[in-house]
Amino acid sequence: MTIDDVAGELYGLDPGEFVATRTERAAQARADGDRDLAKAITALRRPTVAAWTVNLLARHAPKEIAALLDLGDALRSAQRQLSGDKLRALGAQRQQVVNAMTKRAGELAAEHDRPASEQVLREVGQTLTAALADPDVADQVRAGVLPATVTYDGFGPAGLVAITGGKAAAPAKRASTRRSGKSPEDVEAARRAEAKQELDDAESALETARSARDEAEAAATRAKTELEEIESRIDKLRTELEHAEQQRHFARTAEHQARGELTSARSQFERMQRWADRARARMDED
Q: Is 241 a residue whose pLDDT tops 80?
């Protein structure tokens, strides 16, 4: 048993089964006398729902994932070659493939009884896009062992900042624009293509953030409305309760009075019964 074996198993499980299975594998490693392996297993983080969705995609659509990551290799190659035409063509293809893979991930999640929210699907798309830019992220996606989703700033080796679990990887050194055999026009075209790609990514990220903000505002409005409705129902129920308590008080008073009248009526009946009995007895004597 190796850490790769355990990670492959754990990150293929439903998130709800992760912790219990991790505990079992760590205990097994300790029982085998491998304390280092047990420590490494214990350090494995439970995946977020979005990361689990990416891992699910990697396991159920490995060919599609491989094709996606091959596109990432082509994009990085085009950038190293300062090929503006290739960058533009591959950039358009990249978005289409990421969108298709994100949709497929959502379908797989629903099939496994964990329907993905819009926020989860956004994180899946961001992670797949980051995998195109960062070979290390690509390796994790390919293996299906992501503990958390990944976002990035910019595109390609130049200016890449991959963020996983709150930690940012240092951007790679910017490729030199002075390459033999490339005319100034080619260099400028490649630079503009890269700038255009970065602008497209920034605008896409801005739109995602705008959508998230709008959804949050709508959710806050719905929550406020629901709270007001609940408070209104509580006020109404409180008024009804006060009215019911008053009715109970009146009913209790009436019941007490009725019991008193019943006791008095019974006493009166018994006296009249005795009187009638005495009158009958005198008649019998006569």
A: yes
